[in-house]
Amino acid sequence: MPTISVYIIAYNEVAKVQPAIESVSWADEVILVDSNSTDGTAELAQTLGARVVQVEFKGFGHLRNQAIAACTKDWIFSLDADERCTPQAAQEIQTLINSPQALDVYQTPRRNYFMGKWIKHSGWYPNYRQPQLFRRGTMSYDMKPVHEGYVLHSDKPIGHMVQEIWQFPFKNMAEVMYKANRYSSLGAEKIKHKKITMFTALSHGIWAFVKHFIFKKGFLDGWAGFVIALGNFEGTFFRYVKAIELQQGERWKAPAASDRTSNE
To answer: Containing H/E element for 198?
Structure first.
């Protein structure tokens, strides 16, 4: 019978990793790909039966490729620490990998819980990311530091699972701001070669808000939808501003004492 590995990437996720691991206890192999957490994430994962692999963080594309390399089974299922595989999704996965008609790669729908409610709009449902279920050897990731893409090594079409998994993306508002700051810094590296102005940053930020709140019907999610749209504005705006900062280099740094004196 086909076997399956589940890999979970994590960094300082001790508050989330246990339910993630427990939700895939049915798998033949569970691997926690840790980037030198300091909060006990790796130690907790080991007590739960997961095999821990330490990978220095060099961007999410590199991290996920290293995770694939650590898997040893026929199939691979990717789960993040803030995701939970539901029993219904687990049953569908096992049915798919045992089917003679199985495709090689599958997208998995995700349902997000935020600000005390299940989000139904805002671009957050069904909220596919990279395909999460795939036959080993049929998919890898590009080397982008954030919002990494995927590369197919199969001529078969991508399938879509029916049953959803759950995602709890933020434990509090502080984490919302932390992730926006971290992801905007990583994203700035991707666009620093482009011609960018402050108007570019503002216009892209406004478009990110309008896209999520209006066109993706975030207004139907109430204040949660507004916060999601606002978070997309901030993340996008500061990604471009940080790229300008990288381009400006020394010119944005504080002047030397002699320069301050000469300008007084």
So the answer is: helix 198-210
Which one-letter DSSP state was computed for residue 25? T
Residues 165-187 have pLDDT tens digits of 999 988 889 988 988 898 899 89
CB-CB contact of 35 with 41 (8 Å): no
Residue range 235-246, pLDDT digits in tens: 999 999 999 999
Name the nearest CA neighbour of 229 among 239, 237, 238, 219.
Answer: 219
> Angle at Cα 35 formed by Cα 33 and Cα 45, nearest 5°?
50
Question: CA nearest 157: which of 108, 109, 110, 107?
Answer: 107
pLDDT tens digits, 48-70: 999 999 999 998 999 999 999 99
Using pLDDT thresholds of 50, 70 and 90, give the confidence band for residue 263: low
Bridge partners of 197, per DSSP, are: none
C-alpha span between 65 and 246 (Å, rounded): 27
Within 10 angstroms of residue 183's Cβ, the number of other Cβ atoms is 17
Q: How far is CA 254 from the centre of its chain?
A: 35
Q: Helix or strand or coil: residue 176?
A: helix
The Cα–Cα gap between 22 and 28 comes to 13
Query: Which residues are CB-neighbours of 176 under 8 A, at least 6 positions away?
Result: 170, 227, 231
pLDDT of residue 25: 96
Question: How, if at all, do strands 105-107 and 133-135 pair?
Answer: antiparallel
pTM above 0.90, yes or no: no
Sign of the alpha-carbon dihedral angle for 190, 196, 201, 205: negative
In Å, how far from its chain's centre is CA 257?
Answer: 43
Distance of alpha carbon 111 from alpha carbon 169, whole angstroms: 10
